[in-house]
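Summary of Year 1 activities. Much of the first year was spent building the evaluation harness for sequence design. The harness presents a backbone, in tokenized form, and records the residue chosen at every position. We chose the following record to illustrate the format because it has been used consistently in internal testing since the harness was completed.
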């Protein structure tokens, strides 16, 4: 019997979602998530497997308009702003004492009553949906609660999501160490699939003949670089390459030391083109990912990018170093390998092609879903 999955998530990149909805081939079945969010791949895999899916946006206001077009895109920057101060103050107030948050919880309960979910898929950094609401959802609908997080609970988790840890039937993570940390906080089970993967229909290699000039560079990086205390290793690696032809794409601000290399944002089609065009994709995990397994690791491979990645234990579980990608342990080794592979085009292209073939065979969202179903059957 097909299952019903209710995603509870914060909407990032609302303008990308609106563009994706406008471009949807079937207006009667628009996407729930923008292509730039990993949940989009899961949404597609669930639908293709016959599941019914819906989403509740927990970062839309409880009162007033819940039009996603009015949602503001977060942008990370250095220093304090009035918005950051207000956010920090609000986070000190328990969700149960905030009228707007209580209203969002009520709206979620009503949405769940209409939808009747079998599975609640709760995305990480949940500051809005209270443990009481989650317990009620499980009790009223007999559904399984899946918590999906790409970051360390030691570094990022808030009291609200920690208090709910014992309610999570399964925590899905990208970094194995994060899963252990969630179990220490009370989660019943965890699995490092990792939950990010590739979608052959989305991650399509783009032709260089259509590449804008700004995407043609020797070394490319797409991602977040601020705040510094979370991405210091990433920043240091890129700083060591400033004398190369380096391009950086981000929807957030950059440290002053790297702003000269900024090429713009890269979401949707522009991200596909960028990763398909650069000669070398430097992929450095956040400081909080010690096992490894970020989203870029898989999608860059699917887009034919040759990757040099900071060495993490998980890489050898999912890839063969030297065959699918290269690793570095310090900035001197990074520079040496960049110089080598820029001078050896055939070797670089051979590794990139092998990586693309590998992820399309072994790391699709459909395969992740099959493994998830196995885990779900044991709960």
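For this record, the design step produced the sequence shown next.
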């Amino acid at each position: 019997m097909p299952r019903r999955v209710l995603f509870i998530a914060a909407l990032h990149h609302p303008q990308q979602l609106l563009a994706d909805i406008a471009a949807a081939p079937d207006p009667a079945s628009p996407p729930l998530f923008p292509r730039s969010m990993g949940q989009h791949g899961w949404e597609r895999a669930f639908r293709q497997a016959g599941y019914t899916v819906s989403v509740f946006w927990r970062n839309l206001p409880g009162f007033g308009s819940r039009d996603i077009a009015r949602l503001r895109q977060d942008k990370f920057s250095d220093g304090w702003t009035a918005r950051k101060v207000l956010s920090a103050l609000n986070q000190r107030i328990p969700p149960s004492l905030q009228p707007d948050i209580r209203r969002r919880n009520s709206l979620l309960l009503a949405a769940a009553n209409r939808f009747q979910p079998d599975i609640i898929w709760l995305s990480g950094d949940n500051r809005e949906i209270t443990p009481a609401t989650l317990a009620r959802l499980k009790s009223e609908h007999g559904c399984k609660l899946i918590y999906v997080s790409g970051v360390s609970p030691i570094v990022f988790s808030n009291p609200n999501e920690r208090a709910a840890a014992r309610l999570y039937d399964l925590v899905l993570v990208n970094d194995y160490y994060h899963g252990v940390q969630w179990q220490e906080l009370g989660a019943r089970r965890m699995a490092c699939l990792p939950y990010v993967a590739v979608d052959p229909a989305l991650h399509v290699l783009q032709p260089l003949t259509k590449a804008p000039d700004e995407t043609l560079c020797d070394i490319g990086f797409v991602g977040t670089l601020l705040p510094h205390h979370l991405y210091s290793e990433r920043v240091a690696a890129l700083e060591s390459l400033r004398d190369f032809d380096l391009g950086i794409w981000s929807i957030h601000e950059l440290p002053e030391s790297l702003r000269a290399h900024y090429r713009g944002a890269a979401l949707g089609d522009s991200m596909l083109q960028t990763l398909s065009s650069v000669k070398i994709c430097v992929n450095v995990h956040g400081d909080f990912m010690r096992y490894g397994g970020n989203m870029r690791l898989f999608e860059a491979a699917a887009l034919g990018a040759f990757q040099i990645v900071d060495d993490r234990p998980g890489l050898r579980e999912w890839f063969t170093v030297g065959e699918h990608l290269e690793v570095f342990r310090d900035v001197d080794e990074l520079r040496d390998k960049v110089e080598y592979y820029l001078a050896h085009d055939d070797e670089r292209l051979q590794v990139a092609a092998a990586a693309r073939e590998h992820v399309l065979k072994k790391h699709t969202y459909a395969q992740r879903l099959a493994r998830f179903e196995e885990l779900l059957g044991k709960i």
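The chain has a mean pLDDT of 95. Quantitative recovery figures across the full test set are reported in Table 2.
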